[in-house]
Amino acid sequence: MRPVEMCSHTSLLLFVILNVVLVNSSKYQNQRSPRKFPVGFRFGTATAAYQVEGAWNEDGKTESIWDYLTHTNSSAIRDGSNGDIAADSYHLYKRDVEMMRELGLDYYRFSLSWPRILPTAFPDKINEAGVKYYNNLIDEMLKYNIEPIVTIYHWDLPQKLQKMGGWSNPYIIDWYSDFARVCFKLFGHKVKKWITINEPAQICDFGYGRDLLAPMLQIPGVADYLCARNLLLAHAKAYHIYDKEFRPKQNGAIFITLSAQFYSYEFGKYKEAALEANDFNWAIYSYPIFSKTGDFPPSMKKRVARKSAEQGFFRSRLPELNPEEIAFIKGTSDYFGLNHYFSFYVYRNDSVNGMFETPSTDDDLGVATYFGEGWQIGESNATMFVPKGFYYLLTKIRNDYNNPPVLVTENGFATRGGLRDDDRVTYYRYYISAMLDAIAEGSDIRAYTAWSMMDNFEWAAGYTERFGLYEVDFSSPNRTRTPRKSAFIYKQIVRTRELDWDYEPESYVMTIDKGH
Ligand SMILES: *[C@@H]1O[C@H](CO)[C@@H](O)[C@H](O)[C@H]1NC(C)=O
Ligand SMILES: *[C@@H]1O[C@H](CO)[C@@H](O)[C@H](O)[C@H]1NC(C)=O
Ligand SMILES: *[C@@H]1O[C@H](CO)[C@@H](O)[C@H](O)[C@H]1NC(C)=O
Ligand SMILES: *[C@@H]1O[C@H](CO)[C@@H](O)[C@H](O)[C@H]1NC(C)=O
Q: Which tens digit of pLDDT belongs to each residue from 335-375?
């Protein structure tokens, strides 16, 4: 056990240094005895609409930016695939709920497809067939006491709105919050946890700054920052609508989910660079919502304003939030929804100058990243194995934002497939243990979500990266789901509320044994 954490920056840095030492000496040993979870701690798994549903043009659904991208750009997806059918959850939702029961989940996190519910993108026309699909799924879950946690927006923007600029158009604040209001009205009597938006940094940076996600706009240092501003205001508007008009009757919670990788350093001189890398990569969204002052992180405002001036811009490329906007955004999340996968080391020295396109977020930040030795386990390098990074990230969130209640809304590991996924088992055990370390030191973490319940369309990686506890046979029209070893390990954790490092499943037959 580590000494009890003191709420100061110095102790955080001390832990970061310890992290480096521990990771490097590869003697990282967590407590190996069985570890209990706090009473009331909850477990789930997650998916997203475009990644599992399929039925891309069925029953009145219209085109999303992912339909458009996969159908028009043959080089955009690593294996040339798309989500036209994906795991076919649109038709196989009963099997999906069966898997939730096999795993004994407390909840399941899934997302709503905007163009399935609103085919015109606007609330003038509601697609009853789409609504019926989500009602069927939710009702089937509730029948077995599995709580729905619903993401309103998980990346599948109506293509029509993209033609009008998508998240770079300030009118998205209305378009998105109108959609959110429709969702509250349609499902709010049954759904008590809403996630407004999944992973803003990936939406804006990867989609508007780079060519890693739809719409692959590639206007870095400009469109990504416009997207960030509009997205924060859209999220906040949905929060206020729920808080004022729906919460009094529906009594639920609403929050945002951020993906935060942890940026650390091997050499003390890069301490500030690491702090700023965390600011640029995810605190751009958490600071405006969870900090005492609100607004974008000071380090970002300063660096982008200086660079912009040097480059001949008349104002900072990072839009200024006025005092009303800052107040409107601050405090608009009932939980800190956290997705986390791995960590980076950073450095910043002369060799970084000129490394990046100008202007760009990378150039504004001015740090280079790399992976530590021994961080890669398994065949895939889509995720690295750095459990300590998760612990330091959770500690940083506790210290920076006065210990907000955290729901881990995604964590997981990619393989190339196969049922014997020992690397994934290792990953889950160590990451869950790192989370328990943070909890032991006072972090208010209330839930853990494995990404993903089943293999699915992994965005630009297509079907080459497999994240599922269940394997999906994408060559079969039935999209047969088969539990991997990790499914049995996770089931045991959920059933016993305990992390047992040595548990080996006796049989590889999945049965439903939740008491209902
Ligand atoms: C197609 O995808 C690639 C990424 O693989 C991207 O660089 C390119 O800009 C895209 N083309 C269009 C027209 O969006
Ligand atoms: C900058 O740091 C990197 C990583 O430590 C190192 O490889 C490189 O040689 C350094 N370059 C300069 C110019 O200091
Ligand atoms: C995996 O890492 C290798 C070497 O660092 C790199 O060349 C390759 O592009 C990476 N693959 C993926 C899928 O990120
Ligand atoms: C698909 O499911 C049907 C109905 O359950 C079954 O008859 C068929 O053999 C299955 N096909 C494959 C390829 O698994």
A: 999 999 999 999 999 999 999 999 999 999 999 999 999 99
Considering the candidates 410, 441, 465, 471, report the single residue annotated as catalytic.
410
Find residue 149's DSSP bridge partners. Answer: 109, 193
pLDDT value for 197: 99
Count of CB atoms situated within 10 Å of the CB of 508: 13
Question: Using a 6 Å cutoff on CB, does residue 144 contact ligand 2?
Answer: no
Q: Nearest-CA neighbor of 151 among 194, 119, 118?
A: 194
pLDDT of 401-447, one tens digit each?
999 999 999 999 999 999 999 999 999 999 999 999 999 999 999 99
Rounded Cα gap, residues 273 and 278, in angstroms: 9
Atom 12 in ligand 1: residue holding the nearest Cα: 73
Domain ranges of the chain: 3-515
Using alpha carbons, select from 93, 84, 231 the residue that is nearest to residue 155.
Answer: 231
What are residue 309's phi and psi, to 5 degrees? -65, -45
| Ligand 1 centre distance from Cα of residue 368 (Å) | 24
* Bridge partners, residue 499, by sequence: 35
Distance of CA 476 to the CA centre of its chain: 29
Nearest to 357 by CA among 215, 228, 209: 209
Looking from the CA of residue 477, the nearest atom of ligand 4 is 13
State the CATH class of domain 3-515.
alpha beta
